[in-house]
Write a structure and sequence with these properties.
2 domains; 9 helices; 6-stranded mixed β-sheet; 4-stranded antiparallel β-sheet; binds magnesium ion; binds adenosine-5'-diphosphate; 10 strands; alpha/beta; Rossmann fold
Length: 241
């Protein structure tokens, strides 16, 4: 890896809930300019890991670094400013605001002002095929459009790393394919890193050349998609649960 490359690193992250080790000494890295797939059976700890990275939860031990900067003292409110954005599994949009206003809020949060903020917002609306819906209130959108707006908002914050926790959940195959195309374009044009969690391995593998596999809170395999798919530990994790 190039030294100048920006990178998200988790080192020995652990988090327990009332005796349940949700994340257990998890170590992995996700570089910019690429999509890193994060897979694992239900309950593996994937969402908890995301919540630790974004500081929604505080780790019992271990740390997260972004390009070498320890994020241990950064608050959840300041994580986006530090360069990490996410979409939520449960949608958290400003329901009473328009599609445009929702994305504009993120552009303002990224430090843009005036016409420049408007231009960033419009760029993301176009990237996610929301231009025609700019004046529509968020609460009037279809499910698929709401999911796209969520991701557009996260990207308008101009992150170094974007965390997507099951962005295609609830989408039909055509919507999922369309989302994959849009994320590929983001990957290729923006140079940001994407950590992509999804159950749909076909979807993840279309975007990602590197897969990280979690089971019982910890890393059990990582590598090219075809490698991890053939890994006995991975097959056992999916079958033996
Ligand atoms: P995944 O996203 O891979 O399906 P999660 O991170 O949601 O897995 O959950 C990992 C484990 O931690 C599960 O056993 C889950 O029940 C538990 N867990 C997650 N969040 C909480 C919480 N807030 N309180 C208690 N247990 C939790
Ligand atoms: Mg989850």
């Amino acid at each position: 890896a190039r030294v100048s490359e920006e990178i998200l690193q988790a080192e020995q992250l652990s988090k327990s809930f009332a005796g349940v080790r949700a994340v257990d000494h998890m170590t992995f890295a996700a570089p910019t300019g690429r999509v890193t797939g994060l897979i694992g059976p239900n309950g593996a700890g994937k969402s908890t890991l995301v919540n630790l990275i974004t500081r929604q939860y505080h780790a019992d031990s271990g740390k997260t670094l972004l390009s070498g900067r320890d994020l241990s003292t950064v608050s959840a409110e300041n994580v986006a400013r530090a360069g990490i954005s996410r979409s939520f599994q449960n949608l958290r949009l400003f329901q009473g605001l328009t599609v445009y206003e929702n994305v504009l809020v993120s552009a303002l949060a990224a430090g843009h002002r005036g016409a420049q903020a408007a231009a960033v917002a419009l760029r993301e609306l176009r990237a996610f095929d929301l231009g025609d819906l700019a004046a529509t209130r968020a609460d009037a959108l279809s499910y698929g459009a709401r999911k796209r707006l969520e991701i557009a908002r996260a990207i308008a914050q101009e992150p170094v790393i974007l965390l997507l926790d099951e962005p295609a959940a609830g989408m039909n195959p055509a919507e999922t394919d369309d989302l994959a195309d849009r994320l590929m374009q983001i990957r290729d044009e923006r140079g940001i890193g994407i950590l992509l969690i999804d159950h749909d391995l076909h979807f993840v593998n279309r975007l990602s050349g590197w897969t990280v596999v979690m089971h019982r809170g910890t890393l059990i395999a990582e590598g090219a998609p075809e490698e991890v798919r053939a890994d006995p530990a991975v097959i056992e994790a999916y079958i033996g649960r």
